[in-house]
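Researcher: I'd like a candidate sequence for this fold, 90 residues long. If you have to choose between options at a position, lean toward the conservative one.
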C-alpha cells in the first residue's frame, strides 16, 4: 500500500487467494471470521495512518483455491463486511 500511495495510485486491491476454508471439519468459523474482520480493520487503520486517500478494493475469487471464500462475490463481501463491522463505513 505504501508503494501505491507514493506512486499516486487511486486504489489498492486486496486479493485474498488464501482466505477461506476447504472443509468444515477443521474450521472454527467464528475464529476465522473474527480474524479476517480484524485484518480488514487493520488495513483501514493503516490506510489512514499513512495518509492514503485511495479506495480499498476486494477482488472476489469464487472457490479459488479453496472451497469457500469470504470474498466469493460482491454480495458475500458486502455481507461479510456488514457482519464484522456492524454497519461501520470508511
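Model: Candidate sequence:
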Amino acid at each position: 500500500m505504501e508503494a501505491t500511495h507514493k506512486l499516486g495510485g487511486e486504489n489498492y486491491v486486496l486479493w485474498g487467494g488464501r482466505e477461506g476454508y476447504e472443509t468444515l471439519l477443521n474450521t472454527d468459523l467464528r475464529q476465522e471470521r473474527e480474524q479476517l474482520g480484524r485484518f480488514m480493520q487493520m488495513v483501514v487503520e493503516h490506510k489512514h495512518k499513512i495518509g492514503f486517500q485511495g479506495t480499498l478494493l476486494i477482488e472476489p475469487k469464487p472457490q479459488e483455491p479453496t472451497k469457500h471464500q469470504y470474498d466469493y462475490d460482491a454480495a458475500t463481501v458486502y455481507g461479510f463486511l456488514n457482519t464484522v463491522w456492524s454497519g461501520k463505513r470508511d
